[in-house]
Write a structure and sequence with these properties.
The protein has about 210 residues and is an alpha/beta fold. It has one domain: Spore Coat Polysaccharide Biosynthesis Protein SpsA, Chain A (Alpha-Beta Complex). The protein is built from eight helices and seven strands; from the N terminus they run βαβαβαβαβαβααβα. The longest helix has 13 residues, at about 115-130.
Length: about 210
């Protein structure tokens, strides 16, 4: 099965190298978008045997759009975040799934970890998406069928990307992934204002 991995990256110099070293152990083509990082991320990416893509427009969605056009000829396209919080062995699980099943998108479902507010938020989103049976609505760990990648192109610029994909995919499956906290001194790029935007977008595009 012909598979690609796409990684949006903005200022992840502490983790991107580790992720790319781990991904090198798998038979997949890796495409990384440097989203105008101001740290050493670009240098680290270029020092690995991956496809380097640059996108000046800030935002996770913009980075994924830049990568999307390169991966339309694959059977399966897998998306990870560059923060190294997900065990990339999920690649094996999701490729096994696609060998037996055909869905537009598979979502890597993370365990409910974190503070009380975050856990409550995750459960609320699970309830909001109950008709689609989406268990982790904002997971950045996803896989897409080649057919879906060829017929649909994301339009979101920022962190509403996952919500857009939830609405766009006609068929969705959930597949658990191993999740761990960020490494020390590595911080999420998600701002409080992004959270409100995401919630509004979710409510507007719910099924």
């Amino acid at each position: 099965m012909n598979a690609a991995v796409i990684l949006p990256c903005y200022n992840e110099e502490l983790t991107i190298g580790m992720m790319l070293d781990e991904l090198a152990q798998y038979n997949v083509d890796v495409y990384v978008c440097d989203n105008a990082s101001t740290d050493h991320s670009a240098e680290i990416i270029r020092n690995h045997n991956v496809k380097y893509v640059f996108e000046a427009i800030q935002g996770k969605g913009a980075a994924i759009q830049a990568l999307w056009k390169y991966v339309k000829d694959y059977d399966v396209v897998i998306m990870f975040d560059a923060d190294n919080t997900t065990n990339v062995s999920w690649i094996n699980s999701v490729l096994d799934y696609y060998r037996e099943n055909c869905v537009d998108m598979v979502i890597g479902t993370r365990p409910y970890i974190g503070n009380f507010i975050r856990c409550c938020g995750n459960r609320f989103m699970h309830w909001l998406y109950r008709k689609q049976n989406i268990q982790d609505a904002l997971s950045g760990v996803r896989a897409f069928s080649g057919d879906f990648v060829r017929r649909y192109t994301p339009t979101s610029i920022g962190f509403t990307l996952e919500v857009e994909l939830n609405a766009a995919a006609a068929s969705i499956a959930n597949l658990p992934c191993e999740y761990s906290p960020r490494v020390a001194h590595s911080h999420s790029k998600l701002k409080l204002s992004d959270s409100f935007t995401i919630l509004f977008y979710m409510w507007r595009h719910r099924r």
